Amino acid sequence: MKPLYIHAVGLAAPGLPGWAEARPVLAGTQPWQALPETPYAPQLLPPNERRRAPPGVRQAFRAAEDARNASSLDFSQLAAVFASSDSDLAVMDRINTALAEPVRAVSPTDFHNSVHNAASGYWGIAVGCRQPTTAVGGYDGSFAMGLVEAAGLVHGDGLGVLLVVFDVPPPPLLRSSRPMRHAGSIALVLGAEPDMGTGERALARMRLSLADEAESPLQDAALEDLRQGNPALRGLPLLRAIARGEAARLVLPHVSACNMVLEVEPA
Fold it and tell me: Domain map of the chain by residue range?
């Protein structure tokens, strides 16, 4: 496959509240420290949409806005791919609970937020995006599936793409069926060339392929716990390579019989 160039990164995870703060931690020059997660209000959303946005959408916006703040690109001109294993299971839990009651009073806001592409819809409102916007899901392979979808838009349609991968823990009744220890989200701005017209050089380039190999762990125990505790954070080994400015061959879980191989190197 032709290379993908990574032009900006956004990140939101416990102890890694943004790419700027996370970069030295992932590079190994600062230790990871546990920090309490705080509520997040998306800055780009109008007040009404901000109030209606559920936790999954807010988590997606944490990383997306982090990537946007680090770039001079016009994000209204980028296509977008939002990938999530489960989107927002708390919304579905409330709807299913309401449907089990005699009155069956489903919240209109919950109904509005129940679709898997809710985050992409909010993003279109936030930045005025009229480019293609896609939502995909692939269980623990959602990060890899999002990369495949983004690569198709970059090389098939000639577009710059914002990829956002996000997940939030399910409500208590569903945690035994879908264990997830914490919220997390990663955003990448991807293009076909090392310069997307702003004069800013890409951070890294990578090629995608498939192989029957085990996924790549992180050697740091705390970061490995983050990686395993949320499907979106399966992309942390990629961010570590970018933070270190080093070439790496990484394997991410995928939805097919084979896993995804990322061959990453500085741009």
Answer: 4-201
Residues 6+ apart with CB under 8 A from 129: 75, 76, 77, 78, 80, 123
Cα-only R_g, the chain: 18
Q: 252 — phi, psi (to 5°)?
A: -115, 150
Each residue's pLDDT tens digit, 183-193: 999 999 999 99
Spell out a b/e string for 147-177, using b for 16 or more CB atoms within 10 Å of the CB, else e.
bbbbbebbeeeebbbbbbbbbbbbeeebeee
What whole-number distance in Å separates Cα of residue 143 and Cα of residue 250? 13
Residue type, 150: A
The CATH number of the structural domain formed by 4-201 is: 3.40.47.10
Model confidence pLDDT, tens digit, residues 103-140: 999 999 998 899 999 999 999 999 999 899 999 999 99
Within 10 angstroms of residue 220's Cβ, the number of other Cβ atoms is 17
Residue 231 to residue 170: CA distance in whole angstroms? 13
CA 85 to chain centre: 10
Average pLDDT over residues 211-223: 95
